[in-house]
Write a structure and sequence with these properties.
Helix content is 45%, strand content 13%. By secondary structure, the protein is α/β, with parallel strands linked by helices. The protein has two domains: 31 residues; 181 residues, Rossmann fold. The protein has a five-stranded parallel beta sheet with strand order 2-1-3-4-5. β4, α8 and β5 form a beta-alpha-beta unit. It is globular and about 40 Å long.
Length: 229
């Protein structure tokens, strides 16, 4: 007659060891999670700043009322605000020149950063840089900030004369002369042969929502470096 083998009782010492091992694994997971949070990119840990933004359609995008702080999701500014920065004021209207932007902007005091991206419509409408320069001066006078950042304008699939690249060189020289900062956050979408990289625009003038988001992330990275320096 065969006998059924009775299940063997697990020694208590083995059970205790398993419990200790499980607790150790859980602790390691928690520590790893904490390390991952600490190791997040500096952009996420940057101190929020109050920003003023001035621009044209590539800044306004789908904003219901940009000047009132109603920023559309398709605007690069929404990505900057999502990173924790605060909108302190500004003006951005499709088709506007630097002259119109200087006139439309209300005075803003006490901002940390002024971000200006203007010039595309100056080129399209034949506004000479001799008018662009004093318009930028007027914008800065209306919204003085600790950091004045002049952003390079995007390319055009059908360039004007002067081209956007030539305009940006002149813009950079003006910024250096005035003691402002100049930053080209759009290198990622520039084709070596001129115009946009494929997929970065739908009409040869405006950034796609995806390009807008990447543009905003690049600006956030720049602001993070400026804060930590």
């Amino acid at each position: 007659m065969s006998q059924k083998r009775r299940p063997r009782n697990t020694p208590r010492t083995w059970k205790d060891g398993a419990l200790i091992a499980a607790v150790g694994i859980a602790a390691a997971v928690i520590v790893g999670a904490v390390v991952m949070v600490i190791a997040q990119p500096e952009r996420d840990m940057a101190e929020p700043q109050s920003i003023v933004v001035v621009g044209d359609s590539n800044t306004e995008m789908d904003s219901p009322d940009f000047a009132a702080g109603e920023i559309g999701d398709d605007s690069w500014v929404s990505t900057v605000l999502a990173a924790g920065h605060r909108f302190a004021g500004g003006w951005a209207v499709a088709g506007s020149t630097s002259v119109q932007q200087a006139e439309g902007l209300d005075d803003v005091e006490g901002a940390d950063v002024l971000l200006v991206m203007t010039g595309t419509n100056d080129l399209a409408r034949g506004v000479p840089f001799e008018q662009t320069a004093p318009s930028l001066d007027a914008i800065v006078a209306k919204a003085p900030a600790d950091h004045v950042v002049v952003l390079a304008i995007p390319p055009r699939d059908r360039e004007t004369t002067p081209t956007s690249r030539e305009f940006n060189r002149t813009l950079k020289a003006l910024a250096e002369d005035r003691g402002w900062e100049y930053f080209d956050a759009l290198e990622f979408l520039r084709s070596p042969d001129g115009g946009f990289v494929q997929g970065m625009t739908n009409d040869g003038l405006h950034l796609t929502p995806e390009a807008q988001e990447q543009f905003g992330e690049t600006v956030v990275d720049y602001l993070s470096r400026e804060t930590s320096s």
